[in-house]
Fold this sequence. Notes:
There is one protein chain. The chain is α/β, with parallel strands linked by helices and 256 residues long. The protein has one domain (2-255): Rossmann fold (3-Layer(aba) Sandwich), CATH 3.40.50. 34% of the residues lie in helices and 28% in strands. It contains 9 helices and 12 strands. The strands form 3 sheets. Strands 6-7-8-3-9-10 form a 6-stranded mixed sheet, sandwiched between helices. Strands 2-1-4-5 form a 4-stranded antiparallel sheet, with helices on one face. It binds adenosine-5'-triphosphate. Adenosine-5'-triphosphate (ATP) is lined by residues 11, 14, 16, 34, 36-42. Adenosine-5'-triphosphate (ATP) binds at residues 11, 14, 16, 34, 36-42.
Amino acid sequence: xxxxxxxxxxxxxxxxxxxxxxxxxxxxxxxxxxxxxxxxxxxxxxxxxxxxxxxxxxxxxxxxxxxxxxxxxxxxxxxxxxxxxxxxxxxxxxxxxxxxxxxxxxxxxxxxxxxxxxxxxxxxxxxxxxxxxxxxxxxxxxxxxxxxxxxxxxxxxxxxxxxxxxxxxxxxxxxxxxxxxxxxxxxxxxxxxxxxxxxxxxxxxxxxxxxxxxxxxxxxxxxxxxxxxxxxxxxxxxxxxxxxxxxxxxxxxxxx
Length: 256
Ligand SMILES: Nc1ncnc2c1ncn2[C@@H]1O[C@H](COP(=O)(O)OP(=O)(O)OP(=O)(O)O)[C@@H](O)[C@H]1O
């Protein structure tokens, strides 16, 4: 789905990414994990084409990112940044309609797609609230819906890609769990997700694959249960923690 070949990126003398390669799989949730400053957001921006690597190449659906037009990309992949954009004084539903701008469709079709996403993401209670009146967590939920609305085409998500930078950073424990249930729905409907995540245990529970970054380098990548090891995580974060397998619940967790 998205292949990154040996990408490196520097600003001045500061090397943010060093020869990172990975094939992000279709139909999976892949987490990007690493310490503060490891280069996770930079990698995501490289995958989006916002950051142009000095070396290496990113291919999306087998075609170099540089060959796609922005319009073509906007229909196929959507980004949720770590820090939301300036909030507009608009009702949620109007804001979500703006995400349909790339489609040639009637107003009623746009409204149907937006209503579908509002229902899927349980946002009915806030659909008429203004963005600048939402809490941080509520706004983050709307931003996910905005990205989802951008991708939904004839109620389908086949081949669509969400790139999310810490989408749950403002969410409570219940909403954080729901976020990943929504992402699993997105993948079940044919989409793929790449997510920068700081909560290791959430990533271990919900993500199919995991890429560990350390100082701009890929330390390990692969299936979550293969990458989520004590050795890898301790090396990645310079800590001395333990991985515990809860066989009964079928989950792994890491704690210090
Ligand atoms: N515009 C910039 N100019 C110079 N250095 C930058 C710039 N943007 C980021 N960096 C540096 O690049 C490194 C990687 O930043 P990045 O935001 O990708 O890290 P991150 O892994 O996402 O961190 P966090 O978990 O704290 O969000 C950091 O050391 C940061 O200071």
